[in-house]
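May I ask for whichever protein you like with its backbone structure tokens?
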Amino acid sequence: MADYDRSPGAPWSAEDIEQLRILAAEGTATSVIAVQLNRSEEAIAHRAAQDGINLSAASHNPYDPDTLNR
């Protein structure tokens, strides 16, 4: 893994933003996106709003077996 500072206020890389776009498009829950990108849910929501990424589809229950493979 690359040496990348994910402390509060750490810059977003192009790869992070692309991963956010992909996960949001797949309907991944914001809480799961936050864990995968090692950021807070608030940071995910803020960045998504900045970049026009729709998180409304990301309301699936991450523990629902029907949505685990999305």
